[in-house]
Structures are given as structure tokens and as C-alpha cells.
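Run log, item B.
One chain of 145 residues. Sequence copied directly from the ordering sheet:
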Amino acid sequence: MKKRIAIGGDHAGVGYKDQLRQHLLGLGYDVQDFGPFSSASVDYPDYVHPLSQGLEAGDFDFGIVICGSGNGVAITANKHQGIRAALCWNEELAALARQHNDANVLALPARFISYELAEKIAQIFLSTPFEGGRHQSRVTKIACS
């Protein structure tokens, strides 16, 4: 079964989002784009909240959110109880976010990494399994509810 990916962000991340969406579609992923759809200034919560709600509802396996620093989109996504968003700017962080934290949303900082690196980070994030074991009890304690 192919993985279902939700992708979104803000105006600073729209270029990377559009390229990454096409790349993931080419790899056979099912990708839903939550926007934005232009580089006009927008408020990222308007896109990240619906994306996160879809992930919480089980409509998607993973989310990818992209803004200038990656911080705003990560903070917004992490307001949702079912989300564990990880801001990653290198490949090792992407692998560890999945292996140790069972992160289900990747946050990328478009103004601080190249598109090529963003693509590599996304591929690692989407293909790395959660290790479980000693990490499971920690992940279970993250939610506040």
C-alpha cells in the first residue's frame, strides 16, 4: 500500500513544496497539497491546521510542512495531540526523528537548506521506521491528553 502524504506550508516554502510534491508523486506516493498555491504572503496556520487534522483523522500516513525557518509550521502542527512534528535540517535528524520519536510530520526550513537536501531529508524521513522498544514509552508520554 502506498503511503499517503499531506504537504503544506507558507509562501516561503511554496517553491520547495511544489517541487517536493512532484518528486513524491513520481515515486508513487499519494500526495495531497494543502497549499498555499502561490508565493503571496499567507498565514501558515491556515494551511497547517487542516493538514494536521487530516493526519489525526487517519487520512494520511505522514505530513510535510515547509516554511522559511520551519519553526512556525512545526509549532502549529505540534498543537495537535496526534502530531509529532520534527524540524529537520539534515539527514541524520530526519532518521532520528523517525527512529526515536516516531515523528509523523516533517518540518523543513526552506530558507536554510537547499532543495536537493530537502528532498533527501524527506526521503529518509518517509522511509525510516520507528524503532519502538525503549523509545515507545517516551513517545507515549508526549501527548497531554
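Observations after the first pass:
- Residues 4-140 form a domain with the Ribose 5-phosphate Isomerase B; Chain: A, fold (CATH 3.40.1400.10).
- The CA atoms of residues 99 and 130 lie 4 Å apart.
Flagged for discussion on Thursday.
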